[in-house]
């Protein structure tokens, strides 16, 4: 449980597996890419479990070690993203309770994801959340460093005029938990994401929620 009683002014959300279920499109794109390269498709759960840590490593690890220079990695990443760009708007879905939370919470909200902004913004538009007053939408290409590095989280806090003490980070992956620890913010792990919540708790998350309907009462309990 949380010990600090500092009121929360800003909630920073991860994107994939936290606000939006993007797994079906990511899984399909991954297997389409693998099949195009002569690899067997991978089980859905294997791919889903890697989303929080980045699918790039999952794909690169399938190739022989001697090929893995920086140029090769960039080429593979570009080829995969070209496939994903054709698939990523097929059926993203908000997790239950997201709209209700955003309509009821009167504090600030931001997104900090390791996903590129060029994918985040069209998904938000498809889900009609692009007009919500986000204090920041930060992607993996917004700063030199990605989560768990503090830089993108601190950038979102600066945009909102918030501090680590007044920020709650909500996510489903180790980059979220480790990033929260790095900046000194409290962190809530979601039980419906792509990483086992028991692992996230063991790594430093303070609490878990089963749905977004639990988030606002939790925040109010901190004040």
List the helices and strands and how they pair.
Blueprint (H helix, E strand, L loop, with lengths): L9 E4 L6 E2 L1 H14 L7 H7 L4 H6 L9 H18 L5 E2 L3 H7 L3 E5 L4 H10 L9 E3 L11 H11 L6 E5 L2 H10 L2 E5 L6 H6 L4 E3 L5 H7 L2
Parallel strand pairs: 1-4, 1-6, 4-5, 6-7, 7-8
Antiparallel strand pairs: 2-3
Helix pairs in contact: 1-4
What does this structure look like?
The strands form 2 sheets. The protein has a 6-stranded parallel β-sheet, with helices on both faces. The protein contains 10 helices and 8 strands. The chain is an alpha/beta fold and 223 residues long. Strand 6 (167-171), helix 8 (174-183) and strand 7 (186-190) form a beta-alpha-beta unit. The protein is globular.
Brief summary:
Helices cover 43% and strands 13% of the residues. It has 10 helices and 8 strands.
What features would you highlight for this structure?
223 residues, alpha/beta, two-stranded antiparallel ribbon, 8 strands, globular
